[in-house]
Design goal:
The structure is a single chain. This protein is an alpha+beta fold. The protein contains eight helices and ten strands. The radius of gyration is 19 Å and the shape is elongated.
Length: about 260
């Protein structure tokens, strides 16, 4: 019997050229679709109505992205089969959702950026974050793609932990490169290279660029919908995290955040 599935997935962004399918190159979507086809859960992404909730850039990791698709595969066996078939993508929760469910129509998205605090005025970083909160035209804080650029940034929370500035950003949706450009602005203000007034002028539309923060310290922590997931952490998950810690990734947002979630 065909049912509409939603699964939570996590991935280290480094092995992929991004999340969205591309004509060439390995992406999170292509790896997920290949795994679904390999286990016989879908025949094609078009026929199964496959969609990913959020797109992430090359190098950006995720702990709580969501994929949705139609399938007749066993509910109880789906995650185990996917984790056996997929490489570099971890599946840990599933839900049966209504036919009308569209993963991109999320209630909220939560991103976390880990920023070294050395040389930065943390209070200035917080003041810049306060300026960016709320509803603004973010056209100077994104890569234009023809979409409207007025968005509401629900919150930016700043904490300092062991020399790292943890920046948590929440909104219903973000524009392309929006998080990394806002973090770049916060970094420039914290370093004393630009003023809060310059950030205000950019929000008012003045053509000011603050650069683009690196992608590796950025993690999509969660995409929230009004559905309840059945969480089943696969036995291999902790072993894979331990293997990552041997590598340089042990200092990245992905592993630090994933280890916190598994505690």
């Amino acid at each position: 019997m065909v049912w509409h599935a939603a699964v939570k997935l996590a991935y280290d962004g480094r092995p992929f050229i991004g999340s969205q399918r591309q004509p060439e190159g390995r992406t999170v979507e292509s790896e997920t679709i290949t795994a679904l086809q390999r286990i016989g859960a879908i025949t094609s992404p078009e026929e199964s109505r496959f969609f990913l909730a959020s797109r992430t850039d090359r190098g950006v990791s995720a702990l709580g992205n969501v994929a949705a698709f139609k399938t007749s595969f066993s509910r109880e066996a789906l995650l185990r089969a996917l984790n056996a078939a997929a490489k570099d993508v971890l599946f840990y929760a599933w839900a049966e959702v209504p036919d009308t469910f569209k993963p991109r129509r999320a209630r909220e998205r939560w991103y976390r950026y880990l920023l070294p605090s050395h040389g930065l005025d943390v209070e200035a970083v917080k003041q810049c974050a306060t300026l960016l909160e709320g509803r603004h035209d973010f056209r100077r804080f994104c890569k234009p793609n023809g979409r409207p650029t007025v968005r509401t940034l629900n919150s930016i929370e700043i904490e300092v932990c062991d020399g790292i500035i943890v920046v948590d950003l929440r909104a219903r949706e973000f524009l392309h490169n929006m998080v990394r450009r806002m973090v770049a602005a916060m970094t420039e203000v914290g370093a004393g290279r630009v003023s809060l007034e310059a950030v205000s002028r950019a929000l008012e539309g003045e053509a000011i660029s603050f650069g683009l923060a690196p992608p590796e310290p950025l993690t999509l922590m969660d995409v929230s919908h009004d559905i309840v997931f059945n969480v089943q952490y696969p036995p291999t998950l902790r072993r894979k995290v331990a293997a990552y810690q041997i590598d340089v990734l042990s200092r990245s947002a992905f592993v630090q955040s994933l280890c916190e979630r598994l505690e």
